[in-house]
Amino acid sequence: MTVHVVKVHDLLDGSAEAPGTTVLVDRIWPRGVAKEDLGHDEWLKAAAPSKGLRTWFDHDPEKFEEFTRRYRAELDAACTDTETQDDARKDVAKLLKLAGSGDVSLLYAAHDREHNHAVVLADWIRDHA
To answer: pLDDT, tens digit, for every residue of 49-61?
Structure first.
């Protein structure tokens, strides 16, 4: 099992490949992208960071370390906490199942290729799958 992280716009312009099952992991559909153009297998938006965490982070690289800690805690809670919303539990479980079955490419639309939730999610999946 290999987990790849691929920027949506790189995939669409042909400068990146997305091996395995392709999963959009953004909570919001990428701006300027038609749904029929993406060609993804799944959209697991509830596996993305909560709205509150996303708003707090605001793509600030200086907050990335704390964002990583908080987002991983959200993902852990989705696996263990019965209080976590059903959608998050279902999407995280499905993502782990997909990763356990073969290669997965996580698609994201953030501008920063190093400081984004898909990078954190990929590491978390590698630790848990």
So the answer is: 999 999 999 999 9
